[in-house]
Amino acid sequence: MMNRWPSAYRMAKLPAGFKTRLQDFVVTEQLEFEPTGGGEHLFLSIEKCNVSTPEVAQMLARRFAVPGLDVSYAGMKDKKALARQWFSVRGGADDTLVPGEFAPGVRLLELQRHQRKLKRGQIAHNQFAIKLRGPVDDDWTVRLEKLASHGAPNYFGPQRFGWDNVERACDWLPHRRSRRISKFKHGLYLSVLRSFLFNEVLAARVAAGNWAEPVVGDATQQGQPTGPLWGRGRSAAQSQAREIEVSALAPHAEVCLGLEHAGLSQQRRSLVSKPQEMSWEKLADDELLVRFALPAGGYATSLLGEVFALETPPNE
C-alpha cells in the first residue's frame, strides 16, 4: 500500500534493518496533561512488548471487572515494539495492584487518579528511540540531517492500513447500516478510509513538489499546509489548494460520500511531519540509535522510510 504514494526526496534509499529485535523500536507516550491525583478514573502507565493496545485494554477490563467501554487510551501503539502508554479505567480500584509485571509482556509502571477518562488524541507527543542496522557511513548522517532540517511528508504509515484494511473498509462502507461489525472495526474502517484519502491528497502535493510550503488557498496549522480528514462540511482549502484536493479525490467520490453519510465531520491534518529534538548515535559499525519526538498521529515509519529502505524481519 505504501508503495502507492511517492517519496519527496528523489534519492535511492539506503537499506536499514528495522525492528530486527522488539527492543529496537521504543516509543514513549507523553500526555498533554498531568493526572491530578484524585478522581474516579484510575490512570495506569503501562509498558508492553509484543502485545497490542486493544489486548492490554481487554486485560484491564477483565482485571477490574468493568465493561470494555470503561477502559480508555489516548492512541494505538505498535505491537512489535517496546511501548509505554497510558490507560484509564473508570472506577478502577484494586489495593493489591502495585508497579511490576502485570501479565506476560506487560508491566505496570505507575498509578495515578484523575477526574476524567483518557480520550483519544490527548497526546502532547510520542518519543521514539529506534535502532537502525546496516553499514553506518556518512550517507546515513546526511540523510538524517535532511530529515531533522526539513521533515518528511506526513503520510499515515503502514500500521494504519495493514494488509487489506482499505479493501475491507471499501467493501463494508456501502453496507454499513446492514452489515454489523464490532465497534472497534467500525471505528477502524472509518479511520482507515480517511487516512487513505489524506494520503492521496498528500501524494498529489508531493508529486507537484509543494507539500512542504503553503500554496494559494491553503488552510494552515502553525504555518504548515494541511490536508483533509474527510467528512461532512466544506473543505477549508480554497483556490489552488482546493483544486489539488478535488483532483486527487475525484476517483474516490463514493468513499468521500460514504464518510459524509457516516456522520464524520471534516478535519485537517498537517502535510508535514517535522521531528523534534532529533539526534543520533553510532553504537557499532552496523548500528545507529536515532531519537526524536513526533506529535500525536505522526508515524516514525513514514519519517524514516522517506530516506531509508526499512527492512523488517520476515515475520514482521
Describe it for me?
This protein is of the alpha+beta class and 316 residues long. It has helices at residues 53-64, 138-150, 158-161, 165-172, 183-208, 239-249, 253-261, 300-304, and strands at 14-18, 25-31, 41-49, 71-73, 82-90, 100-103, 106-114, 123-133, 152-153, 220-221, 224-229, 267-270, 272-273, 276-284, 287-294, 308-311. It folds into two domains: 22-127 and 275-311, Pseudouridine synthase (2-Layer Sandwich), CATH 3.30.2350; 160-272, Pseudouridine synthase, CATH 3.30.2340.10. It contains eight helices and 16 strands. β14 and β15 (287-294) form a beta hairpin.
Q: Which keywords apply here?
A:
316 residues; alpha+beta; Pseudouridine synthase; 11-stranded mixed sheet; 3-stranded antiparallel sheet; 8 helices; 16 strands; globular
Write a brief structural summary.
The protein is α+β, with helices and mostly antiparallel strands and 316 residues long. It has helices at 53-64, 138-150, 158-161, 165-172, 183-208, 239-249, 253-261, 300-304, and strands spanning 14-18, 25-31, 41-49, 71-73, 82-90, 100-103, 106-114, 123-133, 152-153, 220-221, 224-229, 267-270, 272-273, 276-284, 287-294, 308-311.
